[in-house]
Write a structure and sequence with these properties.
A six-stranded mixed sheet has the order 1-2-3-8-6-7, covered by helices on one side. Strands 4-5 form a two-stranded antiparallel ribbon. It starts with a strand and ends in a 7-residue tail after the last strand. The chain has helices at 49-66, 87-94, and strands at 4-7, 22-25, 28-34, 37-38, 43-44, 74-81, 104-109, 120-127. It has one domain (4-127): RutC-like (60s Ribosomal Protein L30, Chain: A). The chain has 134 residues and is α+β, with helices and mostly antiparallel strands.
Length: 134
């Protein structure tokens, strides 16, 4: 059976288009790319690049939590930066959320992201634990 369950955290910003915040399928949680949008304010965090990246990880954390997971369940991350010079900053914030053994990861430089002013995005795949009821 190809059952898919959508996950929507009210703490994370809604999708910016016709897609789900996250989907559970085949024992994995697939989280769509998250930007540094503060859901409560409904706007991109613009105080600093570090704070925008921090908000990205908060949003991922909210969705993981909604699905009954944590950052420990993450097996793969894909990061997108509009300027690879921001990689050290991205890495610094990333290291606050993950411990060894680290998930697999790729980071790419892209020409633009879907929200004006966004310079980083993160998508995540997490392994669901067998004792979750979702």
């Amino acid at each position: 059976m190809n059952k898919r369950i959508t996950v929507q955290s009210p703490k994370a910003p809604p999708a910016l288009g016709p897609y789900s915040q996250a989907v559970i399928a085949g024992g994995f949680l697939y989280i769509s790319g998250q930007l540094g949008i503060d859901a409560a304010a409904g706007a991109l965090v613009e105080t600093s690049k570090e704070e925008q990246i921090q908000q990205i990880f908060r949003n991922v954390g909210y969705i993981l939590e909604e699905a009954g997971c944590s950052f420990d369940n993450v097996v793969k991350c894909t990061g997108f930066l509009t300027d690879m010079n921001d990689f050290p900053l991205f890495n610094m914030v990333y290291s606050r959320y993950f411990d060894a053994p680290f998930p697999a990861r790729s980071v790419f430089e892209v020409s633009a992201l879907p929200k004006k002013g966004a310079f980083a995005e993160l998508e995540v795949i997490a392994k669901m634990t067998d004792n979750l009821s979702i």
